[in-house]
């Protein structure tokens, strides 16, 4: 982004913050003691249908927690996808100051800033606990901040839907030939992996997926896990549910903040906002694991869904192709290379421990 464009964006953001309401204007213009008593109102736009199990619930809970922890000094008006801006318009809305914050997922911005996908998930990448470790301990947050800085945005983790499923298919996958011409919704780098194996990735926001699958615009779709997927109704039009979710072994939700708005808060309110997002990481991951387990059982026992593994031939091809895609991706620019190298270094460090501590324990527990 050019310096001129960056300056324009920051100016727009500043005007939006200053014009957000009498309370907000007073907070930025008055001494600290007066700020402590001011009532601010922010807008949060999301990429999710209202109260969607998983990320939609997370967005609502963050808004409620901020208001509660702040004693009502900061109130968050929540707008579901399409209520204020389109589902995939939230990045630009927060950058411009139309809203002060958003709840979304970073892989939606692959077309704008390709390296953003690393901050949700990459194929055969980090598991949820490994991803959180990379962001908090392995330098991931600093790289994320650097990536979004030209847009006047501060990103943080805000919830997690856990390990994802591989997707809903109207016809079974027996081998690589079954991927040829397959119209599948799969965002991020997983979609590029599928494209190279002959499928046709289709980019659609979450709210349009059921109708697209039902009408034949899609032959297959992935979304999240059993809890959210069942709420979306995919099992009504597709009965084959594949695993593993090779493309998204992690499901980090992304909170976006207009940096001028965030930095304009009193220190205690800023801390409340950031800690509310951080607290949601553990809460949402625990909730997703619990609800996914229950919903998977319902899908199989009540909804007639068959859970199938990807054939080994397909998994091997997906794994090899993913390695090629990631290697090429790392050459896009210097920052993308640094993000890729940091992510891969975290995987190399953490994978042996995950193997010793988790894989072997699960094998022993299951006999």
Please describe the structure with a list of short key phrases separated by commas or semicolons:
about 375 residues; alpha/beta; D-Maltodextrin-Binding Protein, domain 2; 6-stranded mixed β-sheet; 5-stranded mixed β-sheet; 11 strands
Explain the overall architecture:
The protein is an alpha/beta fold and 367 residues long. The protein has a domain of 198 residues: 3-Layer(aba) Sandwich (D-Maltodextrin-Binding Protein, domain 2), CATH 3.40.190. 50% of the residues lie in helices and 14% in strands. The chain is built from 14 helices and eleven strands. The strands form two sheets. It has a six-stranded mixed sheet with strand order 7-6-8-5-9-11, covered by helices on one side. It has a five-stranded mixed sheet with strand order 2-1-3-10-4. Helix 4 packs antiparallel against helix 12 and helix 7 packs antiparallel against helix 14.
């Amino acid at each position: 982004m050019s310096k001129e464009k960056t300056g324009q964006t920051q100016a727009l953001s500043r005007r939006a913050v200053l014009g957000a309401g009498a309370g907000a204007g007073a907070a930025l213009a008055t001494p600290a003691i007066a700020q402590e008593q001011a009532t601010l109102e922010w807008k949060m736009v999301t990429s999710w249908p209202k109260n969607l199990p998983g990320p939609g619930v997370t967005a609502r809970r963050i808004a409620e927690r901020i208001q509660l922890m702040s004693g009502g000094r900061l109130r968050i008006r929540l707008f579901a996808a399409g209520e204020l801006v389109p589902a995939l318009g939230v990045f630009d809305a927060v950058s411009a100051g139309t809203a002060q914050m958003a709840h979304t997922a970073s892989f939606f911005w692959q077309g704008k800033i390709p390296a953003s996908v690393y901050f949700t998930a990459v194929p055969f990448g980090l598991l949820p606990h490994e991803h959180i470790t990379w962001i908090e301990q392995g330098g991931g947050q600093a790289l994320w901040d650097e990536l979004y800085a030209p847009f006047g945005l501060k990103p943080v983790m805000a919830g997690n839907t856990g390990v994802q499923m591989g997707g809903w298919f109207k016809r079974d996958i027996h081998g690589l030939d079954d991927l040829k011409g397959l119209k599948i919704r799969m965002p991020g780098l997983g979609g590029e992996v599928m494209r190279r194996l002959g499928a046709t990735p289709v980019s659609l926001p979450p709210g349009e997926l059921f109708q697209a699958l039902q009408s034949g615009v899609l032959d297959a779709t992935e979304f999240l896990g059993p809890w959210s997927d069942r709420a979306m109704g995919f099992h009504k039009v597709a009965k084959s549910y594949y695993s593993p979710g090779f493309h998204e072994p992690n499901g980090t939700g992304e909170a976006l903040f207009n940096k001028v708005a965030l930095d304009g808060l009193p220190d205690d309110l800023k801390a409340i906002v950031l800690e509310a997002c951080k607290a949601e990481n553990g809460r949402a991951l625990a909730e997703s694991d619990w609800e996914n387990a229950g919903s998977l059982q319902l899908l199989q026992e009540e909804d007639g869904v068959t859970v199938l593994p990807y054939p080994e031939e397909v998994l091997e091809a997906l794994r090899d192709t993913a390695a090629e895609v990631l290697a090429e991706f790392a050459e896009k620019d210097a920052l993308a290379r640094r993000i890729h190298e940091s992510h891969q270094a975290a995987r190399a460090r953490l994978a042996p421990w995950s193997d010793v501590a988790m894989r072997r324990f699960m094998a022993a527990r299951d006999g």
